[in-house]
Model the fold of this input.
Amino acid sequence: MRCKYSRGMQTSDRSTMPACKPALASTPVVEGSKFPAIRTALSILLVLLAALNLRPLLASVAPLLHDIQTDLGLSNLWVSVLMTVPVVCLGIFGPLAAPLSRRFGLEGVLLAAVATALAGALLRSFGLVPLYVGTVLIGAGISLLGILTPVLIKRDFSDKVGMMMGLFAMMLGLGAAASTAAVIPVTQALGGQWEMGLAVWMLPLLPTALIAVALLSMGDNRSRSTAQEKFRIMHDPLSWQIMGFFALFASLAYAVMSWGPSMLMARGLDPETSGFIMSIYFLAQMPSGLLVPIIAGKMRDQRLITTTMIVVGTMGAMGLLLAPAWSLPGIALAVGIGQGGGFAMALTLIVLRAGTPQVAAKLSGVVQSVGYVIGGLVGPFAVGLLHDMTGDWSVVAFFFAFVGTASLILGYRASRNRTIVVV
Done:
């Protein structure tokens, strides 16, 4: 059976249309948990801790890469493979998120994702082969965790999407900033062994697993579906617009994260100053990541705020290459605000444009899988290639301008007040 929601229709409007229910009648009606307040609190904690764990297990590798390469005798090729594996895992395991959540329930898959990442974090400190196998497990777990946490928000906090996505984005930035800044001091405090420096970041996974177990044990597993009815979303241009916006903006962000220190040092800054400016960039992402989804959730459509974040983030990225050196701390602040808010906006649009948790799961899987793979590979690769071909960093500003313009076109259209049509 087919069901089409009209463009611009709000979630509250759809809930009053019984004729549309059969199209996604795979979710059983459940009265709720025996302890709804406890369940709500646990769901909030799971969202926060899941977001906190999405970056440290991966971000902690780069600062220790020299020690890992020296100790294990890795060639540059195998170092590149190690850094690329998590991105590839997003493309491989991301599409499995929606069918797994329909089959086993959202909490069950979230718990399995945390357990998989935890197993990988334990394993990768035991030598060469375990390092790569553990990284694959971490990539698989983080992929499912990142894709399905917004689905949890859609399901349990449909009337507070903006606030919860803001908290999600803020904790995501906090995990990235904290792990990047603390990995070297923590490793030194633990004896200077890179194995311990990596293993310590599995600790936040433990309370996350306990909360997922608690939610699963409460028995209100509302995401499980026994129906085999399938539906399509990628026929709708809106799905492609969201995916394109996410992928292009992620390309811009990954390019700045990967090459930012090199670009700054090429302008004559010493490593310490470059690190300080990059820390401003990371820290600035946190408040914008929190506030932008909250503001966006209160707007009828999100075109204005999406446009603002893309323009600020793109112009700021160009400014890192072209602006006077004395202005770079302020430029880094602008880039962080724009890219942190723009990335949070891209994640929030997944939830806002999906009519049901099932659609959100499918859309989140497609958008994040494709978006992260393109963002993690194309952006840094293109910047490195342009620099190698020209020997000049300033030409990269034209690449930033092109990607930012394309992001603006797609992001503007994806931010219109519409809901994805399901067939």
User: Anything to note?
Assistant: Residues 206 and 349 are 30 Å apart (CA to CA). Residues 357-390 form the longest helix (34 residues). The radius of gyration is 21 Å. Confidence is low (pLDDT under 50) at residues 1-32, 223-228.
